[in-house]
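Readers outside the structure-tokenisation community will struggle with the description of the input data as it stands. Showing the layout once, in full, would remove most of the difficulty. For illustration, here is how one protein appears when written out as sequence plus structure tokens:
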Amino acid sequence: MRVLQLLRGVAVIVPLGLLIGCGDAGNQRQGVNDPRAQMHPELLEVSASPASPGETIEIRFPQETGRGIAWVLEEQDGNDWRVLYYLTAAIDNNHNFGSPSWWSVDDSEGRSWEDIGVSGPGPDTIQIPDSIDPGTYRLCTANSVENICTMLDINKQG
């Protein structure tokens, strides 16, 4: 009889523990250096590519993709991507948040983004770092539930 009561208790506790363990972990936003970030250029329309160092560009979202204000510019390193710059978008789809800014990954100590969720078609405005070298980069959201990316070419300043 005692064993039967114990088994019934375990039958209730184990499923409850599994539900609690699952929680909202699947819905948490990803951060920078997201190895699961995927190329989805169909979800991001960039106003200028190629762009120039120091230029301000707009990003629109034809499917009104949910996102944050955090972005990264990455360079390819073998089969992986390496973050070079952090960007903060200015948004103007009735949210009117700030002005675009950026900083180098080498100058990131003590810096962070506000965790602001954004939806709608945009535009979100970002500034291309003025210290970036010409080349092809990957531009990605950096604090979305699912980070998405597109390629971005950078010309010489000028």
About this structure: The longest strand covers residues 80-88. Confidence is low (pLDDT under 50) at residues 1-29. Helices lie at 2-22.
